[in-house]
Amino acid sequence: MEKVNVNKPWEQLSELLQTNDLQQVIDFVDSLNPADTALAVSRLSNSERTQLLTLLEPEDAAEVIEDIPDSQAADFIEDLQPEDAAAILEELDSDHVADLLGELDDEDATAIIDRMDPEEAEEARQFLTYDADTAGGLMISEYLDFKADQKVKDVLDNLQDNREEYADYDVQYLFVTDERDRLQGVLRMRDLLFPRRTAKLSSLMIRNPYKVNVDASLEDLRNFFEDHNLFGVPVVDADDKLCGIVMPEAVEEANEKKSTQQFLGLSGIVGGEEFRSMPLLARSGRRLSWLSLNIVLNIIAASMIAIYQDTLAAAIALAVFLPMVSDMSGCSGNQAVAVSMRELSLGLVRPTELLRVLGKEASLGVINGLALGILLGFMAYLWKGSPFLGLVVGGALAVNTVVAVSLGGAIPLLLKRAKLDPALVSSPLLTTVTDMCGFFFVLSFASLVLDKL
User: Which pLDDT score, from 0 to 100, does residue 399 have?
Assistant: First the structure.
């Protein structure tokens, strides 16, 4: 075997797969850190990835899947036979299973669930009924619960008898439920160490524990863990039945994922995360869907120039200032968008407070607009020696800045009320409007004093 570049682990993994030696493959994968595992697996061909995931034992394959982003891992899972995929998913935590199945289309997800263990399949179906960014979508079902009338001895015996299964659980608390599985209280592990073995859990548990509803939003969960330094919080349904546990790490990861999706949306990547391991046509379609819309939006903005082409031809110096006016106004508007987005995420403003936001942003827009307009108008005057040119471009920038910041503050609220994603739509929509208005103000003002320019 030729010496392989250690900086290219996918090459070595590819060669090991050709030997079909399971132990060598396992040893090599175990030697990689999570980042190198994701890199190596993503660089394999489709057939090599399928070979790797079917060659490994389901438990080992599940560890590989855990190191890969969900959307990419779902693509890899989708290439497997349903029974092979089901075996791997059964080794993952319940919340991870729900995330991966949620990335698949309904037909593939159903085929895999149908081949899972009936109990785990039913649990997966239940998890898929919850929205991803709610407590129900983020919770795990790997927790320990006991009945209020059980004794300390019963719990200790259960822990000992099932120690191998529970070894993979993140056990910080034990939960106490009644005969209808309704949450009654919480036990810390240390609460089992000192009491008599005959003591009942009902006498030791912390009653009325903190809990959240399955429909609690990501923002609610983030606020909860900011206020309470806990290892996890129980999740209950409308009947107070214990459904699962949400860990703070899951909330943090969901927040990071949401931020990534917003960034991709603002960058024009529609439909979720994109990886270069995805099919070429799928990647092309995600990008073109947004780029095509931008063509339409830019045509609308450019139509203002076409309407006033005679004015522009008569005073060609205006062409230099058109992009300045639209760009500076766009920057001012995007600052307002950022503030509204931040206040919406923190709950400091409500989508119904449109007039309040408009008033505050318009006031700021007048001040900033006048300052920027005077600056740009003075520069225009120094360049061409024409006070009217300075008045046209300075006045256009001042007015357009007021429009831009007012709309920038209001658009996220309007989109939120319309149940659209403000992060995805606000900036491109604002850019189109500020471009169109900027061109209109410059050229219409110029038309009024065309003989003096």
Answer: 97
